Amino acid sequence: MFSKVLVPLDGSKVGEAAIPAIEQLFSKLAKGTSVEVILIGVITLLRHWVVVGEASAPVSYTEEELKLIKQNVDKYLIKAGEPLTKKGITVKTMVPTGNAAEQIIQAADETGADLIAMSTHGRSGVRRLAFGSVTDKVLHHSKVPVLMVRAPEGTKNE
């Protein structure tokens, strides 16, 4: 049985599709079992663009700006995990920076997660190749099983 699950979230409703699936899975299979869910939000953009007139330039976030971004992501993760917490599931959060797929795989290793549960947009073919797929990269490079949850039809990526 899985006792430690890593759930990557990207701030969208599509990304949150894995949370109800985990909630259902553990409410049916793990009665009385200690379960820990680690919600991870990876900050992938470490700079922003400044536009002055017709020119623009990339500017790295300051340490203070990055700290504020991390705090906001952590607040989001805590709020997203409330349904799990209400069910008695221990919820922890992580907010690393870098490549999303690499950070998810690294977090699974570092935390000892025995399952990664993540949502997928359900793209295939050329659309998947064009946009890339964090889920696909995690699926093919993770050392632990990956539960892919397809977002319900009509879920907007907000």
CATH level-4 homologous superfamily: HUPs
Proportion in helices: 25-40%
Structural class estimated from helices and strands:
alpha/beta
Identify the CATH architecture: 3-Layer(aba) Sandwich
Average pLDDT, all residues: 84
Number of helices: 6
Give the SSE map.
Layout (H helix, E strand, L loop, with lengths): L3 E5 L9 H12 L6 E5 L6 E6 L2 E6 L2 H18 L1 H5 L3 E5 L5 H12 L3 E6 L4 H7 L2 H8 L4 E5 L8
Parallel strand pairs: 1-2, 1-6, 2-5, 6-7
Antiparallel strand pairs: 3-4
Helix pairs in contact: 4-6
Task: Briefly characterize the structure.
The chain is of the alpha/beta class. The chain contains six helices and seven strands; from the N terminus they run βαβββααβαβααβ.
Walk me through what this model shows.
The chain is elongated, with a radius of gyration of 17 Å. Strands 5-2-1-6-7 form a five-stranded parallel sheet, with helices on both faces. Strands 3-4 form a two-stranded antiparallel ribbon. It has a single domain (about 5-150), classed as HUPs (Rossmann fold). The protein starts with a strand and ends in an 8-residue tail after the last strand. Helix 4 packs across helix 6 (about 135-140). It is built from six helices and seven strands. About 40% of the residues lie in helices and about 25% in strands. By secondary structure, the chain is α/β, with parallel strands linked by helices.
Can you tag this structure with a few keywords?
158 residues; five-stranded parallel sheet; elongated; single chain; 7 strands; 39% helix; Rossmann fold; alpha/beta
